[in-house]
Input
Amino acid sequence: MKLGPIEVDHPFLLAPMAGITNSPFRRLMREYQSSVVISELVSANGIEYASQRTLDLLKYVESERPVGLQIFGEEEENLVKACQVVERMGANFVDLNMGCPVPKVVKKGAGAAMCRNPVELGKILAAMVKSVKIPVTIKIRTGWEASLRNASEVVKVAADAGVAWVAIHGRTRAQGYSGDADWDFIGDVKAKSALPIIGNGDVVTAEQAVSRYKTYGVDAVMIGRGALRNPFIFEQSFDLLEGRDVKVVTAERIIELLAKQRVYLAECFDSRGTLLHARKFLAWYSSGYPGAAEFRKNVFHIPEENALWDEAYRFFDASIRKRDMSFLSEPFLMGGHG
Ligand SMILES: Cc1cc2nc3c(=O)[nH]c(=O)nc-3n(C[C@H](O)[C@H](O)[C@H](O)COP(=O)(O)O)c2cc1C
Output
């Protein structure tokens, strides 16, 4: 199937998340069937003279394709230059972050603040689209606040400017991460939209992913935090959509996933970076398994990588059959850049 101009296997994809959707995790999630991956947000201001840290954020490997690099900023000139840098780096598309609610970002007029002035926004988007051959996509929220939920107007402006698709996180900027994502609203926007619409927010099971896709008529469903506690969610959603049996998550399968992640992390980060990232992911993956609290404590105290992975393999091997899914209703990672 096609998502805008991009050929994809199915409509379920990983959401961009700062500090999380780095190249090793994107690579892993592509392998576990996220249909597309997108980098975390990277500042367009000064991307031309970027620091090594910024350039590192823009790196990807071939197996991630289709891969988009996400930028944020407020000045047309910088955003255009950033699009051109992303194109030169060979990414499949460039995504503009228009959903970030963080005060430091919106104060300058970037992130979610861009939706507040659709006329100005239209000019900026048109300039970005004109400046590159690769598709330009955007990720927005439903609006600035409850009284200004103008996503439909933003989608229209984006369509006129030549944007390829719009991903919508179903909350306003004012909501941050509180309340529920409003999928009825996303469905209404989709019904009026000339562009492909990707719905996003609070999808934590394959059943929800498929049901959101079918109920709201969206072109795709984007999953962020749900993938951190169930990294198999994309392949499960795809299987469910196609009417295939959903594969059981066995100890062998999760250990195989961990072993891959271990290699990809080590290829990208030094041993300290690998350790820090591994701890985070292992803590998330362990949600709901018996002994998870104890395991997390261990994970953050083990000072050495080999011992950490050994402990992880032991933990998942011992506990995999007894996951208690009630953790899904608990609040999780209630803050981020979109
Ligand atoms: C820790 C964290 C970091 C995030 N960073 C980004 C980001 O860099 N760019 C972006 O567009 N959205 C970002 N988001 C928002 C997610 O892409 C997504 O819209 C949001 O988490 C809701 O979807 P979910 O309920 O499936 O997680 C971030 C979210 C979290 C939790």
